[in-house]
Amino acid sequence: MTDDPVLEFAAARVDVLTVTFQTTIGFSNGTTVQFEAEFAITGPDGERRLVDPTDPTSLAPVLALPGDTVTNATLDGADLRLHFASGTVLEAWPDESYESWNYHGAGPERRMMIAMPGGGLAVSGPPATSD
Fold first, then answer.
1. 75, exposed or middle or buried, with CB in 10 Å at 0-12, 13-18, 19+?
2. Integer Cα distance of 117 and 98 in angstroms
3. pLDDT tens for residues 90-102?
4. What 3 state SS string does the chain have?
5. How far is CA 112 from CA 34, 72, 131, in A?
6. How do residues 39-80 score in pLDDT, each as one tens digit?
7. Inter-residue contact 5 to 103 (CB < 8 Å)
8. Are the beta carbons of 72 and 85 closer than 8 angstroms?
9. How confident is the model at residue 4, as a pLDDT?
10. Which of 56, 58, 57, 37 is nearest to 48 (CA)?
11. To 10 degrees, the CA torsion angle through 18, 23, 28, 29?
12. 4: how many CB neighbours lie within 10 A of its CB?
């Protein structure tokens, strides 16, 4: 566990989109982010659109992400913000009732983060190993 979670997105490109009742974005460095509640994408044109992973008609902004590269990733509590080279910004926040998003890092520590219902961020690292 860490008090200062690190997001492993340095120059990571969107390589995979998986859409079921959730939306999962897979990055070139092995990091994934899964959304289970509403999030927002602001396109390079400045138009902000809400995306509901359970509503296929709202997913169009997500379909523009493959091939785009993260230039900056920030956390403010459980609010996640990803800036892309295209000028697109993805924002996710906690849901009142559900885990809204989760992150599985691919860095050396392989952090996992979950935006908890009602706010807060759960952070865990790799399981302890025994020699």
1. middle
2. 5
3. 999 999 999 999 9
4. CCCCCCCCCCCCEEEEEEECCCEEEEECCCCEEEECCCEEEECCCCCEEEECCCCHHHCHHHHHCCCCEEEEEEEECCEEEEEECCCCEEEECCCCCCCCEEEECCCCCCCEEEECCCCCEEEECCCCCCC
5. 11, 18, 23
6. 999 999 999 999 999 898 999 999 999 999 999 999 999 999
7. no
8. no
9. 53
10. 58
11. -130
12. 6
What amino acid occupies position 1?
M
pLDDT tops 80 at residue 1: no
Count Cβ atoms within 10 A of the Cβ of residue 113 and give its class: 0-12 exposed, 13-18 middle, 19 or more buried: buried
Structure tokens at 95: 């849901």
Contact call for residues 18 and 24 (beta carbons, < 8 A): yes
Which tokens is 63 given?
């379909």
Using an 8 Å Cβ cutoff, are 118 and 94 in contact? yes
